[in-house]
Amino acid sequence: MAEFADKKLVCKDCNAEFVFSVREQEYHQRMGLRNEPRRCLICRQVARMRNDDKALTRGPRRSGPPGPGGPRPGFSGPRETFTVTCAGCGRPADVPFKPTGARPVYCRDCFRSRR
Ligand SMILES: [Zn+2]
Ligand SMILES: [Zn+2]
Description:
alpha+beta; two-stranded antiparallel ribbon; binds zinc ion; rod-shaped; 3 helices; 14% strand
């Protein structure tokens, strides 16, 4: 078994010297890694963070297809409304349909509270 000794390596990213410690060398050997690290600890972290970013943008999209927002096809201009008197509170209310008189018409608030 080879004797380990702290090794000084030069980071390929920032050209700073860093120590490839005995402990890390042992770890590398245990993991079956043959290559010495080519980056210092800081640059390794930066690289990992960059990879995480990439994984995030590459991963499944969290937002679905563009939702409603733009004008819907076949819909032009403001919706036609009819002003009626609410059968619940007596206030004028705008409804998106023509009241027939057959059924009581409620404003939005009363309509919601009746359901
Ligand atoms: Zn570095
Ligand atoms: Zn009402």
